[in-house]
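Standup notes
- HV: blocked on the assembly model, inputs below
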Amino acid sequence: MAKSNKPIVWSLFAAGGTLAAFLAPVLVLLFLLAALGRVPLLLHYSQLHAFAAHWFGKLFLLVVIALFLWHAAHRLRVTLHDFGLRQDTAVAVVVYVVAAAGTLLSVLYLSRI
Amino acid sequence: MSRKPYIREVSKTGWYFKQPRYLRYMSREVTCIFIGAFALLLLCALGRLADGPASYDAFLASLQGPWAIFGLLAVLIFAVHNATSWFNVTPKAMPVQIGEEFLPGKFVVVAHYAVWIIVSLTVLFLAGVF
């Protein structure tokens, strides 16, 4: 039977897309408020640090960042093909390496909090 | 294969301008660029948070300004576009069968929108926006 990694990356894409659909707009809104000078309480250092110090906060941040990254990586791979870039293997390596590196970095950052 | 195969000339880079529905398809696909950029922003914020209060506050200060506002507004628009287009196809992605019949698609869509609104309001409340 032919082996393929498609089910894995596709499930990460679908899970990330669903999570992004529910959460991305409101999370972006929090940062937009911060940019407008009305920093939400959660985005103050002490509050966010306390959130990220708790195991639930760590899990939430890791899942959000990792799934958003893997969703974007897989969809970007397909979208770059649609834009006329046909070097799929090279594109796949680049986008998945960035997603994997981002996932590892978020684990590293969370371990330091 | 025939000796003179008919090859339709299609631009590999500009084909989606031919039809409005191709353009709508591409508008859904490019949302991933904005979701990805936002994920990197979150990663950056997390790194600054791990570095300590001075670094994190400098990050927050760097968010203030017209370019960040413009960029986040664009991300917000595409994040909402991802959400609505994602929810609108849920009846096709996961049809709900009850006995012999399928639950009408609009119920599945409306349920997703309702959960989306509740989740968004809950996050805003927990984040201390109101």
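- HV (later): unblocked. The mean pLDDT of chain B is 94. Chain B touches chain A through 52 residues (CB under 8 Å).
- Next: hand off to the docking folks.
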